[in-house]
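Homework-ish question, so no full write-ups if that breaks the rules, but can someone show me the predicted structure for this set?
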Amino acid sequence: MSYNIAALSKLIEQFERMPSIGRKSAQRMAFYVLNMSKDEAKVFANAIIDAHEKIHQCKICCNLTQDDVCTICQNKARDSSVICVVEDPRDVMAIERTHEFDGTYHVLHGVISPLNGVGPDKIAIKQLLARINTDEVKEVIMATNPTVEGEATAMYISKLLKPMGIVTTRLAYGVPVGADLEYADEVTLSRAMEGRRVI
Amino acid sequence: MSYNIAALSKLIEQFERMPSIGRKSAQRMAFYVLNMSKDEAKVFANAIIDAHEKIHQCKICCNLTQDDVCTICQNKARDSSVICVVEDPRDVMAIERTHEFDGTYHVLHGVISPLNGVGPDKIAIKQLLARINTDEVKEVIMATNPTVEGEATAMYISKLLKPMGIVTTRLAYGVPVGADLEYADEVTLSRAMEGRRVI
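A: Not a homework solution, just the prediction itself:
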């Protein structure tokens, strides 16, 4: 389906490349942009350029930041001897929302995935090891996703850390709070049984 | 949920304003933009500005175009004595896809909707009447959506056109091809019965 309008087709294409955006959504979004005022369109375009220019990785934890060092690493109230290793900057925010963790983070920006050509050198493992060598780190919490790749990455990193005498822990598996046991898959349920605790 | 990164929050906000995009999708899209190369981000930002600067309404039919007059109005092979009135530029493309219509279009850019404060003067009815006065128009096909507002707009325009001696027609109602009668709503089904034809 072509609109015979080059500028519109180009804009639709741009939106269509985004994750989970299909042709119809891309069209709707492009028409939304057309209906913006000129100033709004400029603000939108600038937001894209700005985000690109201003945001980079924190020197310490590789999380996204506009400064050299992110606000969490800058915060002296946080316990830098505990590092929570996550795959993605969004995972940092998910854990921050719990308001339960006062350590620091390390963002890998991916997981080891040989099938997709991602080896250990392609994610921020080197930076994590460098950090552990210089800082006094007591515990590393592996909070990668409970997927095959996330699991493998957690195992890989914990094997590297073991000889360094650092405690490596993994997030607990179990049934999600508020969920229905009936709908829990077998693996989750058997892990929940394994990890049962005295009440 | 805040990322503590102004440039990122701004970008997420921009995406969140789009139709049918929620918080999570907006975040995914913003992160997608961050992972673009610098050049790709520039292309994206330019596509927004470009679409805004280059695209405007056709002088004749109010459809979107990069030229003064859109390709359909420019095309001499098309029958300018038949005008198909639609709500939106996307409707033009939907009808064009049928390859059955060789007349011209008129895009209203909305429907009369008193509840939303849209009166007849806020949509391109004036331009339609001006066109009918100057061109030799034989038939106006009302192809607004079969909604309450679309219906009312079609009735309103046809009443304006009647004294001018122009045939106004409306798209046929009926069951959609390939659909299951069982799932057709009563109104559609009774309209389909009303409009039945000898085979």
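Now go work out the reasoning yourself. Hint: Chain B has a mean pLDDT of 89.
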